Amino acid sequence: MGRLNNKVAIITGALGGQGQVAVRRFVEEGAKVLASDLAARANGEVAALIRKKPARVAYVGGDVRDGKVVEKIVKAAVKKFGRVDVLYNNHGLMVGKPFLETTVEELDQLLAVNLRAPFLLSQAAARVMAKQGSGSIIHNSSVGGIVGFPTMAAYGASKGGLAQLARSMATDLAPMGIRVNAICPGVVDTQMPRRYLKDVEDMKAAFEQMAAMHLMNRLAEPIEIVNLALFLASDEASYMTGGVIPIDGGLTAI
Ligand SMILES: NC(=O)c1ccc[n+]([C@@H]2O[C@H](COP(=O)([O-])OP(=O)(O)OC[C@H]3O[C@@H](n4cnc5c(N)ncnc54)[C@H](O)[C@@H]3O)[C@@H](O)[C@H]2O)c1
Question: From the centroid of its chain, how far is CA 9?
């Protein structure tokens, strides 16, 4: 028996570094997965999985800032798989810029992607879950939503808002049997930190500095974050709601 047998999960940011691993692991644990990301068509590991298991994995492309795309994603999950048990709001955008140089357009974009879209996706999915009387919603926040980092004011505000959204949603949705939790990773080895550091002269030294912020002196592997998402999605986490959970190699312990 897989840990997610008979569950239907929506995973956003599904073509990203963590998303691809999440789709694969959720499917391995028995879930049916509606994957979504910006690209019109699935690629990489997700495309291969759809070819291999077309009855168990589907993909909807689009920008989750668009309310119509949000509705399309949730409707597609219900149409193809009949229900929605898990929403993993995993998509995200990072812009790192000094506070005084951050433009209002950059702030608006970060809030729209990292906070407004998960809000809308959660509303659409929770309406389905409420009828079922159960569900688990997981937000991929960040340690940047818990503590302050230079150049991360706008990103941190969006992720801090996302963490608070988990707590607040949990209070509204508990009577409907819906759990809501936020995951707060430290730096994860995906394209996201690479894009952030793309202009630094000594990339290797910059990565070593980043690694040194964590007690474990390394970045997280995507699977290490996905393992927590998997747990929160499963019935093993039946008593967990309103949690804002650092998973950061000890970064926020110091
Ligand atoms: N990598 C890290 O160091 C780190 C640390 C803490 C939190 N996180 C969070 O983890 C999550 C996954 O990130 P990742 O590390 O896999 O990075 P990633 O850049 O590989 O993946 C992010 C995915 O989100 C998608 N996305 C961005 N904007 C979108 C939009 N408007 N509509 C639809 N999809 C959109 C991207 O296309 C991409 O595939 C993000 O929410 C990120 O903020 C990452």
Answer: 12
